[in-house]
Amino acid sequence: MNDKYGRILVAGSTGYLGMHIVKELVEKKCDFKALARSTGKLTEMGVDEDKIIHARVTRADSLQGCCDGIDVVISCLGITRQKDGLKYMDVDYQANLNLLEEAERAGVKKFIYISAFNAQNLQHIRILKAKEKFAARLLASEKLTPCVIRPNGFFVDMKEFYIMAKSGKVFLLGKGDVKLNPIHGEDLAKYCIRAILKEGQEYDVGGPEVLSEDEIAKLAFSALKKEEKISHFPDWIRRVILFFSRYLPEKKTGPAEFFLSAMAQDMIAPIYGTKKLGEYFKDLARRERALAQKAKNKGETPDSGA
Ligand SMILES: NC(=O)c1ccc[n+]([C@@H]2O[C@H](COP(=O)([O-])OP(=O)(O)OC[C@H]3O[C@@H](n4cnc5c(N)ncnc54)[C@H](OP(=O)(O)O)[C@@H]3O)[C@@H](O)[C@H]2O)c1
Questions:
Q1: Which residues form a coiled coil (predicted)?
Q2: Which of 287, 306, 290 is nearest to 159 (CA)?
Q3: pLDDT in tens, 96-134
Q4: Which of 103, 171, 156, 178 is nearest to 134 (CA)?
């Protein structure tokens, strides 16, 4: 058992980043527990039942005792595309607060929270307002050591480019020259675990390649071995959609509000990791081809879950 990190509790353990963190902890033979509302995804990836704590983070009473004996909490809890009918304030803020209060009560030493790159400067965006309200409460904690990690966009979100490329054309709002350095979940998971042993309280992080939106689209076409077709629409369309999205229910327009605001300027965070986006897209394409081949062999219609 690797005890240099102490006993870790991962919240949001069934999400994209959470599952990468759990995988990394298993590989490192760390002592950990995974907090989840449903256990299926974790058991499917081979996590022992006795490592899973079943709880509903939106209900404080459900969390009682979950932090007993825990040294470090890593929280990746948040709404991305969940369709629970809850608001960002209910999950990104309140559910994380429920967990923090339980961690403080139980004497947890360190609490690491995943916010988003540039969130402090984009407080008019509903998801980021909820995230930074929690981050501020965490950073003010006097009972444990706080740590807020603000990562750039994840590779999983760059899949939107891949899906458009697969359908034949990538549509971009603006000139396609806005730059960002997205990060792979595996690299970010390593970064989060490394933060357990570091002193700092706030970190910005992005992946190893700075790419424009046009370059991301081209990587997707190349992985799919398709001709590049990119259409650019004037940036005022983005601004108009963004303006109206703020007045519509966040359940419907929250993700669009976030991505359209992020696309307004370069988003370049300090570089970390080794994973390249082109390889990620190629891997998606390989998996889809393998699934299609398998379905063909069985005489079924391919159903890509890559
Ligand atoms: N995606 C990005 O580009 C990006 C960039 C920067 C920061 N972030 C932030 O990083 C964090 C992790 O992102 P991710 O992509 O890994 O998110 P994700 O895949 O959507 O995972 C979110 C986790 O939160 C849990 N969760 C959400 N609503 C819940 C609820 N009502 N009750 C209980 N659990 C709930 C999910 O549980 P279930 O599996 O049960 O739904 C899941 O475990 C998020 O806070 C996100 O905002 C994301």
A1: none
A2: 306
A3: 999 999 999 999 999 999 999 999 998 888 999 999 999
A4: 103
Verify whether ligand 1 is closer than 6 Å to residue 128 (CB atom): no
Q: Which CATH class is domain 8-152+183-205?
A: alpha beta
Q: Is 38's C-beta closer than 6 angstroms to any atom of ligand 1?
A: yes
Q: Please give the distance of CA 246 from its chain centroid, rounded to a whole number.
A: 22
Q: If pLDDT is split at 50, 70 and 90, which confidence band does 306 have?
A: very low
pLDDT at 256: 81
205-258: per-residue pLDDT in tens?
999 999 999 999 999 999 999 999 999 998 898 888 888 888 888 877 878 888
* Cα–Cα distance, 212 to 191 (Å, whole number): 24
Nearest CA to ligand 1 atom 18: 15
Domain coordinates in residue numbering, the chain: 8-152+183-205
The tokens 């599952």 sit on which residue?
Answer: 19
Using the atom order of ligand 1, give the atom closest to the CA of residue 41: 39
Q: Quick one: how far is CA 107 from the chain centroid?
A: 27
